[in-house]
Prior knowledge:
Blueprint: E1 3-5, E2 8-10, E3 12-17, H1 29-38, E4 41-46, H2 55-65, E5 68-79, E6 82-89, H3 96-111, H4 113-122, H5 129-135, H6 143-152, H7 160-165, H8 171-179, H9 195-204, E7 208-211, H10 223-230, E8 236-241, H11 246-259, E9 262-266, H12 287-297
Parallel strand pairs: 3-4, 4-5, 7-8, 8-9
Antiparallel strand pairs: 1-2, 5-6, 6-7
Amino acid sequence: MLKLFMGVIIMAIDLHIHSIASSDGELSAKDLVEMAFNLNLEAIAIVDHDSIKSVEEGLFWGKKYGVEVIPACEIGGKHQGKTLHFIGYFIEIMDERLHKLFNQVEDTRRQIIDSQMAKLREAGFYLEKEKVMEECNYTVPVNGSFVNVIFNDPRNQDNPLIKEYKQKDNYVVRFSSDYLNVGKPFYVPQYIPDAVEVINLVKAIGGVPILAHPGSNLTIDETDVIDDLLKEGLLGLEVYTTHHNEEQERYYLDYCQSKKLVYTCGSDFHGRFKPKVKMGAIKKNTYEVLERLKKLKK
Length: 298
């Protein structure tokens, strides 16, 4: 949305939104661009999970509506026992290396659907495959697809874990992080690329690699993980995000400034998957953030 500061119009952006190509997204690329236009956003980045299937459509409708759409994606990667998310901005979406990686990730996710459901049923949760597939728009389910079905099934409402996590903000994300990620109780082994491989690929296809919402996957005393990734070419952190509280925002902003990194801003909008998250509703989301990214691209 356009913001007014001391009589000057500030152009607003959102560099982290998801479409139906993410499995846990609700809206098409056209719908997202139209929403951004109605919110007076100057620029957006559609960063689907391990997918660029909505980028071309987003670019097309961005030109129609006069909204700048940045070609990007969000890629999972593991490092030092942590599952992290990386956003590649300004990537070359036709590069075969990117498609090869995404095909490999998608194939393994498809193979473990039944195993993941069996694991969750063994833990005492009720769920049906048809509901899971419906939740992910009949694509390939991600952690959030399973969790949403479990949490919305009336038969699970008396489960102590459901009761506990429903009291928390972003409970789907937090439950996934605590129980479905690598090394957690309900994790089913699947292919997750190495984080260094992800960073190298993003840079090889002309992109700018940024660590998304670090506070959702790392504690503040685990910045040694980020230190290590800086040596491998990581160029910045997503500081202003609905995943972070004020303490985390201050900490990661200070970290970026001390390391001379760029910081980015993104809501992580998904639609009904995260009903409290609104597109563009983030701090410090001015166009100058995108300008700094563009300088790195050059």
